[in-house]
Write a structure and sequence with these properties.
The protein has 498 residues and is mainly beta. The longest helix has 13 residues. Strands 22, 23, 24, 25, 26, 27, 28, 29, 30 and 31 form a 10-stranded antiparallel β-sheet that branches. A 5-stranded mixed β-sheet has the order 4-3-2-1-19. The protein folds into 2 domains: 339 residues, 5 Propeller (Tachylectin-2, Chain A); 147 residues, Exo-inulinase, domain 1 (Jelly Rolls, Sandwich), CATH 2.60.120. The chain has 1 helix and 31 strands. The structure holds beta-D-fructofuranose.
C-alpha cells in the first residue's frame, strides 16, 4: 500500500519534476527528480539493471524529512527516473528514512535496508534521535515496509554503542548464502566504529564483530560504511564527520576514508594495513559500491560536502548530484578509480594534439566545451626550469576553474574560486600527486555543473561542483617553464533515445 505521504511525494514529482529544463541540470550526473538529494542509497543490481536510490527531500532544495528517491540505469550513465520509493510514514522512521543499502533476494524480490529515525525530547528536554534499522521489500518500483520493523535496535549494539548514532546499513548476500550488513556507530570514546552483522533471513540479525574503529584518530561518527574484497585485499570505506586535517591527505570536517587490509573470509576479521582519502577534491561524500555482473566494483558518491551545502544559487529547483560511477581497483596498495568504461559510448568529436609546446596561455583548435572527456599528458622538455602547469576550463572573461600542477612540491590544486558559487566558502584544495618520470596525466571529465579529475590513470581523483554559466566553455593551457603536452579530447553527447 502506498501511504499518503509517499503518494504526496510521488504526485509532487510528477507535477514539478518536468518543470526543470534538462539544460539546467547536469547532463550525465544523477540528480533528484525535484528538490534536494544527498547520499547514494541502495546502489545495487536488480533484475539485470542498476538501481540507485538517494536521500531525498522533494519539497525544497534544502535537507528535510528524508525520503528515498529512485533512479535506474542500464549503463551507469543514463538514468531513468522512477517514483519515490520510501517516505517517513511510520512511527519508527517518522523523522526520516536515512541511508541504507539494497540487495536482490533469492526469490527475486528487492530488499532495502535503511535507518529509521525517531526524534523525541530526552530527560533534559533536548531533541534526540533514536536510530534503528528497517526493511522494505519490493519489485523495483514499489516497496512495502516490513511489519517486523525495526529489525535492529539499541539492544543489538555492542556495549557502549550509541543508539543516537547507529546508521547507514550497507547490505549484501555473501557466497555462504548469508546476508551481511556493515553499519556505522559511535562508541563510548565518542568516535566512530563500523559494526558487522549477519542474518540468514534479513529479519534475525546477530553482531559478528566491530570491524574497525576511529579511536578519535580519524574523525568522530563514521557514516555510510561499505566493505568488500578487491584485487586480493579487503576494503572498508567510511565517511567520518569532524575530521582534523592531516597534511594534504585529510581536510577538516566531513571527509572520506579508505581502509585497505585483509580479511579472513570465514570469521570476517578485518586487519587494517593502510589508510588514505578516497577523493582529494572539494565535493565528495558517502560513497557506496556495487559488484556488477561482469565483476567490476563500481563506486558512486554524493558530489557535495555538508560544510558547503548552503553555497548554492537558490533559483535552481534541484540540489545535490552524484559523482560519475567509478571502477575501482587496487594497485601498489592504493585505491584506484576510473570513470565507468560505459562513458566511452557517449564520446564523439575526437580531437588529438600531440607534443604541443606550451608557453604563455594557449588554446587549441577544437578543444572547448562543457560536457567533455579530456586527457592531458604533460612532460618537461629539459629547457627552461619547469615550475608550474595550468589548465583552465569553464572559462570566459569572468569565470574559470583551474587545475594547477607544481612539480617542485608535487601538488595538484583544484581552484573553483571563479566558478559561479555565490558564497565565500572553500574553493581550493591541493593534494600530493606522483609524477612518473616527470610526466603527469590528467583526465578531466566536465559536466555542466562539475569537474572530476583522474590523475595518472586513476591513482587519485578529485571532484568539485561548479555553477559557472554554460556559455563559459573555453579551455586554455599555460606553463611556467618548458613543457610539451598531449591532449586527447572527446565531446560527450546524451541525446535521449526516441
Ligand atoms: C551522511 C548522512 C547519513 C544519514 C544521511 C541523512 O551524509 O548524514 O549518515 O543517513 O546523511 O540524510
Amino acid at each position: 500500500m502506498t501511504s499518503k505521504l509517499l503518494q504526496k511525494a510521488r504526485d509532487f514529482e510528477t507535477r514539478y519534476g518536468p518543470h526543470i529544463p534538462d539544460t539546467e541540470r547536469p547532463a550525465f550526473h544523477a540528480t533528484a527528480t525535484i528538490g534536494w538529494m544527498n547520499d547514494p542509497n541502495g546502489f545495487s543490481v536488480y533484475k539485470g539493471e542498476y538501481h540507485l536510490f538517494y536521500q531525498y527531500h522533494p519539497y525544497s532544495n534544502e535537507w528535510g524529512p528524508m525520503h528515498w528517491g529512485h533512479l535506474k540505469s542500464k549503463d551507469f550513465v543514463r538514468w531513468e527516473r522512477l517514483p519515490a520509493a520510501l517516505a517517513p510514514d511510520r512511527d519508527y522512521d517518522a523523522a526520516g528514512c536515512f541511508s541504507g543499502g539494497a540487495a536482490e533476494l533469492p526469490d527475486g524480490r528487492h530488499l532495502l535496508l535503511y535507518t529509521g529515525v525517531q526524534r523525541s525530547h530526552n530527560a533534559e528536554g533536548y531533541l534526540q534521535d533514536i536510530q534503528t534499522q528497517c526493511v522494505a521489500i519490493g519489485d523495483g518500483v514499489n516497496y512495502e515496509k516490513w511489519p517486523a520493523n525495526p529489525i535492529l535496535t539499541g539492544k543489538d549494539l555492542p556495549e557502549g554503542g550509541s543508539v543516537v548514532d547507529f546508521r547507514d546499513p550497507k547490505v549484501w548476500r555473501d557466497a555462504d548464502g548469508m546476508f551481511y550488513a556493515v553499519i556505522g556507530n559511535r562508541t563510548d570514546d565518542g568516535s566512530g566504529s563500523i559494526l558487522l552483522y549477519r542474518s540468514p533471513d534479513c529479519q534475525n540479525w546477530e553482531l559478528v564483530r566491530i570491524l574497525d574503529r576511529s579511536g578519535n584518530q580519524y574523525g568522530k561518527m563514521w557514516e555510510c560504511p561499505d566493505f568488500f574484497p578487491l584485487d586480493g585485499k579487503q576494503v572498508l570505506l567510511t565517511s567520518p564527520q569532524d575530521m582534523t586535517p592531516v597534511g594534504l591527505e585529510f581536510h577538516a570536517g566531513n571527509g572520506t576514508l579508505c581502509l585497505i587490509g585483509t580479511c579472513d573470509p570465514q570469521g570476517k576479521d578485518f586487519t587494517r594495513q593502510s589508510v588514505q582519502a578516497i577523493d582529494y577534491g572539494i565535493d565528495f561524500y558517502a560513497p557506496q559500491t556495487l559488484l556488477s555482473p561482469d565483476g567490476r566494483r563500481i563506486m558512486i558518491a554524493w558530489m557535495q560536502n555538508w560544510d558547503t551545502v548552503n553555497a548554492k544559487p537558490y533559483h535552481y529547483r534541484w540540489f545535490g548530484q552524484m559523482t560519475l560511477p567509478r571502477e575501482l581497483s587496487i594497485r601498489d596498495g592504493r585505491l584506484y578509480q576510473n570513470p565507468v568504461r560505459e562513458l566511452e559510448n557517449y564520446r564523439s568529436g575526437c580531437v588529438i594534439h600531440r607534443s604541443i609546446p606550451v608557453c604563455g596561455e594557449i588554446n587549441l583548435p577544437g578543444v572547448q566545451g562543457r560536457t567533455l572527456d579530456m586527457t592531458v599528458t604533460v612532460r618537461p622538455t629539459g629547457g627552461e626550469r619547469y615550475r608550474w602547469f595550468r589548465i583552465r576550463v569553464a572559462k570566459d572573461g569572468e569565470h574559470e576553474t583551474i587545475l594547477r600542477y607544481r612539480p617542485g612540491d608535487g601538488t595538484l590544486k583544484i581552484d573553483r574560486t571563479r566558478s559561479g558559487l555565490p558564497r565565500d566558502i572553500v574553493h581550493t584544495r591541493s593534494f600530493l600527486v606522483r609524477p612518473r618520470d616527470g610526466e603527469i596525466k590528467l583526465r578531466v571529465i566536465l559536466d555542466r555543473f562539475s569537474v572530476e579529475v583522474f590523475v595518472n590513470d586513476g591513482e587519485q581523483a578529485a571532484s568539485a561542483v561548479i555553477y559557472t554559466r554554460q556559455e563559459a566553455d573555453a579551455i586554455t593551457f599555460e606553463a611556467g617553464g618548458s613543457v610539451r603536452m598531449d591532449v586527447e579530447k572527446y565531446d560527450l553527447h546524451f541525446e535521449q533515445e526516441a
